[in-house]
């Protein structure tokens, strides 16, 4: 018998038992759907985070006191502006080092109030990070040196406090002190779930006085090229450790952040895929079950086919192809629904779902393999039936 | 295998080896440790184009003999040649091919595929012979016409009477141009009129085409259609009216 005949025969058998075929497929459809959707959500999340990190700028090294590990308690910083100056000498290019001192404060304009992140920084910010302006100017060296009470607003803060009015040149009150707005940043979006459009930047010296401290939270160094990042990272940490023996300093690069977060999210995607895979497996067991029922129900038919000259392999092929058709047709439907689902998730929710070709290929491949794997046992049983016994079956 | 043909007087009798030749066949079943001997040494020879009836009460072993002659089962001992081919040395696959090419089956309960047209039912044996679709349909059409069902090709079994279904089954048995047609109680599920009609078709096919017909039945009037009666009882041949011509 030709392969095409077995194929037509199997398709016919599925058509005859429409409802049963559809219900059996449903298990596979749900499994494949779950694989495609969950993997696309996992991949989308990973892509989004990676985009956020690389959107910060290029070749950035973040330096913070203490051990930077997940779950570690934040270390009280003892870095001062003198230390920053020291790091500037170590790095060699003072313009490539910027600082950060953060605090949550209330900002008020007239009667409008908002609680925002105040970041004390300096004129070198834009040499390290990407932070385009939409209006006005950045903080200047003079602003920092003379502790001017000037501020650059994040896009969201500006819109909320001033609406359509141009904020540049106007007054805002930060923690009760009056500041003059000199610039507004362009919209940049979120990093790690924190909106950077809700920040207000002020000179670091002004922030220190306002908060009554002489420390900074951390500093960031911009390397001039990707090949220099690692050496520079080592040099900065070594210099700081030498200055403060017995204390820990951490420096992470974007690549390391990307690597760590990427592997965490990759693992998450893997776990999601595995859970979806289990449902696909359950779908496969359903196929096996139905095929066994089908073989039993059609015992007489099998006996007849054998009497008419069907060989063992003809019968085996017929039932195996039937099982594989069940899972692959189910797989294709699942993929179509999964892609549709991922597109819907991306369009109607905040979750960035990104469809990957490998998840589609994998889902299809796995459903075909499931068909073969779970179809073999029933098909072999059918192929081995004794025609005399089979013909007598009721 | 060129023994003189015993029934040379019958029309359309081709020459060649006997359609079926059995020597001392036994078949023992082991059921839960109990050994049952269904056949205890049966020898017979059915020539090309012969029409024989195997008769006997239920439990006599006639069904077992029928299964052996149809190569659906293997004997415990003895020699069985179908159209000159010794079957004991054949693999299951070769046996399936032998069934497909030399034997046609007609069953008591028709055994047609439900939800499948008469034409496709008849064409089924040719599927396993690797015949292309167009030729299959053509030959199935011819076979259906020869049993008077040229107008029923697109009907499904559920849309046909028992007599018509059995005629479809006969057409299916014939479509592969077998040497032997094995009919197991072909009229058992039919009323008298339809039974007579089916027997008439078998008579005609035997006479016109020279296909050997072996009938298994317990009804004497059905057995009377055959020129030769083989009576089976307790796993042995009790009486063979054609023994003189049929046995070597």
What does this structure look like?
Chain A: One of its GO terms (cellular component) is plasma membrane. The complex is a heterodimer of chains A (394) and B (248). With 394 residues, chain A is of the alpha+beta class. Chain A is built from 13 helices and twelve strands. Chain A folds into two domains: 3-51 and 263-392, no CATH class; 76-247, no CATH class. Chain A is 58% helix and 18% strand. In chain A, strands 2-3-10-5-7-6 form a six-stranded mixed beta barrel. In chain A, helix 2 (18-55) packs antiparallel against helix 12. The longest helix of chain A is centred in the C-terminal third of the chain and has 44 residues, at 254-297. Chain A is elongated, with a radius of gyration of 32 Å. The relative contact order of chain A is 0.19. Chain B has 248 residues and is of the alpha/beta class. Chain B has a domain at 49-68 and 91-236: Rossmann fold (3-Layer(aba) Sandwich), CATH 3.40.50. Helices cover 33% and strands 26% of the residues of chain B. Chain B has helices spanning 62-69, 92-102, 118-127, 133-146, 162-174, 192-209, 220-223, 243-246; strands spanning 20-31, 34-46, 51-55, 77-82, 85-86, 103-106, 180-184, 212-217, 228-233, 236-240. In chain B, the strands form two sheets. Chain B has a six-stranded mixed beta sheet, sandwiched between helices. In chain B, helix 3 crosses helix 4 (133-146). The chains are: A alpha+beta (394), B alpha/beta (248). Chains A and B meet through helix 1, helix 10, helix 11 and helix 13 of A and helix 2 and helix 3 of B.
Characteristics:
heterodimer; A: 394 residues; alpha+beta; 2 domains; six-stranded mixed β-barrel; two-stranded antiparallel ribbon; 12 strands; 58% helix; 18% strand; B: 248 residues; alpha/beta; Rossmann fold; six-stranded mixed β-sheet; four-stranded antiparallel β-sheet; 26% strand; disordered N terminus; ABC_transporter-like_CS (chain B); nucleotide-binding (chain B); MacB-like_ATP-bd (chain B); ATP-binding (chain B)
């Amino acid at each position: 018998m030709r392969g095409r005949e077995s194929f037509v025969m199997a398709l016919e058998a599925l058509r005859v038992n429409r409802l049963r075929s559809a219900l059996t497929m449903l298990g596979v459809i749900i499994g494949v759907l779950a694989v495609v959707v969950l993997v696309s959500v996992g991949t989308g999340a990973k892509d989004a985070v990676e985009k956020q990190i690389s959107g910060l700028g290029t070749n950035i090294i973040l330096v913070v006191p203490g051990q930077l590990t997940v779950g570690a308690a934040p270390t009280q910083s003892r870095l001062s502006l003198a230390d920053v100056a020291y790091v500037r000498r170590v790095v060699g290019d003072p313009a490539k080092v910027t600082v950060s001192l953060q605090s949550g404060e209330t900002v008020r304009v007239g009667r409008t109030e908002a609680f925002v992140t105040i970041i004390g920084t300096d004129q070198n910010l834009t040499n390290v990070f990407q932070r385009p302006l939409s209006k006005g100017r950045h903080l200047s060296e003079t602003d920092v040196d003379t502790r001017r009470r000037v501020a650059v607003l994040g896009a969201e803060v500006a819109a909320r406090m001033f609406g359509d009015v141009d904020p540049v040149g106007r007054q805002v009150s930060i923690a009760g002190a009056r500041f003059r707005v000199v610039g507004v940043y362009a919209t940049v979006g979120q990093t790690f779930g924190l909106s950077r459009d809700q920040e207000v930047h002020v000179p670091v010296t002004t922030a220190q006085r306002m908060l009554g401290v002489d420390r900074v939270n951390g500093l960031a160094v911009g390397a001039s090229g990707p090949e220099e990042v690692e050496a520079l990272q080592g040099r900065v940490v070594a210099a700081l450790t030498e200055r403060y023996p017995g204390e820990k300093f951490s420096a992470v690069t974007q690549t390391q952040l990307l690597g760590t977060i990427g592997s965490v999210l990759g693992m998450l995607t893997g776990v999601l895929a595995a859970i979806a895979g289990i449902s696909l497996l359950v779908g496969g067991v359903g196929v096996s079950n139905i095929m066994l029922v089908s073989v039993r129900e059609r015992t007489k038919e099998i006996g007849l086919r054998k009497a008419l000259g069907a060989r063992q392999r003809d019968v085996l092929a017929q039932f195996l192809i039937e099982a594989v058709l069940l899972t692959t047709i189910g797989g294709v439907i699942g993929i179509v629904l999964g892609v549709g689902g991922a597109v819907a998730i991306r369009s109607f929710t905040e979750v960035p779902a990104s469809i990957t070709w490998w998840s589609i290929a994998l889902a299809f491949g796995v459903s075909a393999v499931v068909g073969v794997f779970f179809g073999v046992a029933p098909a072999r049983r059918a192929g081995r039936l004794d025609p005399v016994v089979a013909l007598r079956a009721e | 295998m060129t023994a003189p043909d015993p029934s040379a007087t019958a029309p359309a009798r081709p020459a060649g080896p006997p359609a079926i030749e059995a020597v001392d066949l036994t078949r023992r079943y082991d059921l839960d440790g109990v050994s049952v001997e269904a056949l205890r040494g049966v020898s017979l020879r059915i020539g090309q184009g012969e029409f024989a009836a195997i008769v006997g009460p239920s439990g006599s072993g006639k069904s077992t003999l029928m299964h052996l002659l149809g190569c659906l089962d293997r004997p415990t001992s003895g020699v069985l040649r179908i159209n000159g081919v010794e079957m004991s040395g054949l693999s299951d696959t070769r046996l399936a091919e032998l069934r497909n090419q030399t034997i046609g089956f007609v069953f008591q309960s028709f055994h047609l595929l439900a939800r499948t047209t008469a034409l496709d039912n008849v064409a089924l044996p040719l599927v396993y012979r690797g015949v292309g679709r167009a030729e299959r349909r053509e030959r199935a059409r011819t076979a259906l016409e020869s049993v008077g069902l040229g107008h029923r090709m697109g009907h499904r079994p559920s849309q046909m009477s028992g007599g018509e279904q059995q005629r479809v089954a006969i057409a299916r048995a014939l479509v592969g141009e077998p040497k032997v047609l094995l009919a197991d109680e072909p009229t058992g599920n039919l009323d008298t009129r339809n039974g007579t009609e089916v027997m008439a078709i078998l008579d005609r096919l035997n006479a016109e085409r020279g296909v050997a017909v072996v009938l298994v039945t317990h009804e004497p009037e059905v057995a009377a259609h055959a020129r030769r009666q083989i009576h089976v009882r307790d796993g042995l041949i009790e009486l063979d009216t054609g023994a003189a011509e049929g046995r070597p």
